[in-house]
Amino acid sequence: MLKPRPAANNAIEVTNLTKYYNGNIAVDGISFAVTKGSFFGFLGPNGAGKTTTVRMLTGVIQPNKGKALLSGLPAGSIEAKQISGVVPEMANPYIDISAWHNLMLMAELYGMPGNMAKERAGYWLHEMGLFPRKDNLVKEYSKGMKQRLILCMALLPDPQILFLDEPTSGLDVQSSRLIKDILRSLNAKGKTIFLTTHDMDEANQLCDYVAIINKGSLVAVDAPEKLKATTDSRHSVEVSFGNPIELDSLEKLAGVREVKKQGDKYRLYTNNSGQLAISLAKYSESNGLTLVSLNTLIPSLEDAFVALTDKEETDNG
Amino acid sequence: MDKKALFQQVKRALVIAKKDIRIYYLKGPVVIFGILFPLFLFLSFAVGRNLGIEFMMPGFLGMVLFFTATAISPAVAPMETQLKTLERLMSCPVTLPTIILGDVLASFAFGIVISLIPLMVGLGLGISIYQPVVLGLGMILAAFCFSALGLLFSVAPTSNTSTIMMLSSMVKFPVVFISGIFIPLTNLPDWGKAIAFISPLTYFTDLARHCLQTSGHLPVWVDLGALLTFAAVFLILALKLHQKTMPRRV
Ligand SMILES: Nc1ncnc2c1ncn2[C@@H]1O[C@H](COP(=O)(O)OP(=O)(O)OP(=O)(O)O)[C@@H](O)[C@H]1O
Ligand SMILES: [Mg+2]
Fold first, then answer.
1. Whose C-alpha lies nearest to ligand 1, atom 14?
2. Whose CA is nearest to atom 30 of ligand 1?
3. Which of B22, B130, B144, B250 suits a disulfide with B231, CB 3.0-4.6 Å?
4. Partner residue facing A78 (CB), from B11, B84, B93
5. Which of residues 51-110 of B touch A (CB under 8 A)?
6. Looking at chain B, which runs of residues are DSSP E strands?
7. Is the CB of A46 under 6 A from ligand 1?
8. Subunit contact B15:A101, Cβ cutoff 8 A
9. Is residue A59 part of a domain?
10. DSSP letter for each residue of A76-118
């Protein structure tokens, strides 16, 4: 799973990283590496330890055991923080000052020269569509505007590594698209991106590699397509009929492993979705049913995620 | 940490102080309260007694400095916790001591600047400063000392600002009454003196009496030494304790 690479090429290198909270383990000795320039997704169910990991990598909290290096520098050191940009999970800009002043504060904390700071702040405010409102107090910003400002603040020092903890959660389609487009183009320019998300689609569209963490332990680190391939038992066919039918009769079809009713559709899991699609067409014809739709589905990243984190019962139950 | 890195962190502490002042201190009510509150408290004591401005000035100055330097500093950490701005700050290239030093510096600047107002008014009313350098030094040490004390009130990693402010008031009020402000040290009984010596404000008030009234009780070097010691102890404690609790605020 974890391909060893020359250390010099690693933007992030984590070895046996461990964090306890009041005796409970939150992150249980995880190890992984992220190569420079890659787009790395960090996925896991609620409470899995994602935010705790990000906080250790960004120097907000100290691990109890293990170590993490950012471009060879110890995570949490001034040097490591200097090359990182962070969008924390739950963070606000200062609401009693303007967006512009928030950005200038960041610039000064990173020790940026004034002219460069102003130029970059202007650039990112434009990119995020906030420029016309730059002198408004952040108090007057909507949630989406605040989140875009937080991203501006993270990008201002031109970090080599960008940490984002659920940057698009709760945003509308336009805002999250804008953010995704910006992340993609940053990655294309060689920035390493460490993204935590619950949105499997997002991870699938953006990431070269994903790690899946569950209950504090890593259960997989691989390219999204490879993860999907390992979940081959999840091939399925989605079918919807114009007439009511018995669930039992679908379960009796050859090759069906499991049937689930999902809204006005049925999802049939199988090893051979092509063959099952044909059987379904025949079944509908011989029973005089109208076939409204019939789709063969390959496993999605979400399927892989669910399979790896043992949550299928609770998800559809 | 090498010299260059240290210098860089001090510079960033000043950035944090500037941020604190802009966001938390430069508010009309805060500034007005800083002056008016000690004034009323002092007047409630002075009214009806025939006290000269020379006698009142050192105590009043001490009170203004004490109340302003401890007014906002305890609230900064809980407010940043509650408004969720702290994690951002902690992920910036600054150390935890830098953040805490920044908070102390903001409070220090606020305390000094506001205290200059009554001093100016006093000068206008005809008081003289007999030892300006000593007074200046004393104000600087005291402002540091009280600011660090203010920071000490907020070491508990809570986001509940009102609890912290209540706690700080519970300490601040008794301190004002035991510090030789209303009754100079010289006139206190021995037990009164013994209690007064545990308060850092005592030494500043005594020093101010030397400088503005030529009637201090303790030697000047004792006052300065005590202020320096209190300042160092409070600052080190504030740094150490906040460093421990700050990661628990996120
Ligand atoms: N400050 C804290 N004090 C005590 N326990 C904590 C603290 N922060 C996190 N935990 C615990 O550590 C575990 C991991 O939490 P973490 O926030 O890292 O999860 P997460 O993967 O980010 O979840 P989510 O998807 O909900 O954001 C959880 O069991 C959580 O209860
Ligand atoms: Mg989280």
1. A49
2. A47
3. B144
4. B93
5. 83-85, 87-95
6. none
7. yes
8. no
9. no
10. TSHHHHHTEEEE-SS----TTSBHHHHHHHHHHHTT--HHHHH
pLDDT of residue B44: 78
Determine the Cα–Cα distance for residues A75 and A63; give it in Å rounded to an integer: 10
DSSP B22: I
**Residue closest by Cα to atom 24 of ligand 1:** A46
Domain boundaries, chain B: 3-249
Helix, coil or strand: residue A34: strand
Domain assignment of residue A306, yes or no: no
- Structural domain of A265: 232-298
Q: Which of A60, A101, A106 faces B247 most closely, judged by CB atoms?
A: A60
Q: Assess whether the C-beta atom of A27 lies below 6 angstroms from ligand 1.
A: no
pLDDT of residue A317: 33
Mean pLDDT, chain A cut into blocks of 10 residues (317 residues total): 60 96 94 96 93 96 95 96 95 94 97 96 96 96 93 96 93 90 95 92 91 92 81 79 85 86 88 86 88 84 78 41
DSSP letter, residue B246? G
- Domain membership flag for residue A181: no
Do residues A125 and A174 make contact, with C-beta atoms less than 8 angstroms apart? no
Using CA atoms of A56, A60, A64, A65 in order, give the dihedral in degrees to the nearest 10. Answer: 30
Q: Which of A55, A92, A96 is closest, CB to CB, to B84?
A: A92
- Between vectors from CA B81 to CA B23 and to CA A120, what angle results, nearest 5°? 55
Q: Which two tokens stand for residue A118?
A: 């102003």
Q: B181-208, pLDDT tens digit by residue?
A: 888 888 888 999 999 999 999 999 999 9
Range in A269-283, B43-57, B62-76 with the lowest mean pLDDT? B43-57
Separation between Cα atoms, residue B78 and residue B245, nearest integer Å = 12
Q: Which residue of B has its CA nearest to A156?
A: B92
Q: What is the ipTM of this complex?
A: 0.90
Give the model's pLDDT for residue B34.
73
Average pLDDT of the residues of chain B:
91
Number of domains within chain A = 1
CATH number for the domain that contains residue A266: 3.30.70.980
- Is A180 exposed, middle or buried, given 0-12, 13-18 or 19+ CB atoms closer than 10 A? middle
Distance CA A189, CA A116 (A): 19
Identify whether A175 is part of a domain.
no
Q: Is the CB of A21 under 6 A from ligand 1?
A: yes
Residue A7's pLDDT is what?
Answer: 63
Task: Decide: A273 and A281 in contact? Cβ < 8 Å.
Answer: no
- Beta strand residue intervals within chain A, DSSP E: 10-21, 24-35, 39-43, 65-70, 73-74, 84-87, 161-165, 192-197, 209-214, 217-222, 236-241, 256-262, 265-270, 291-297
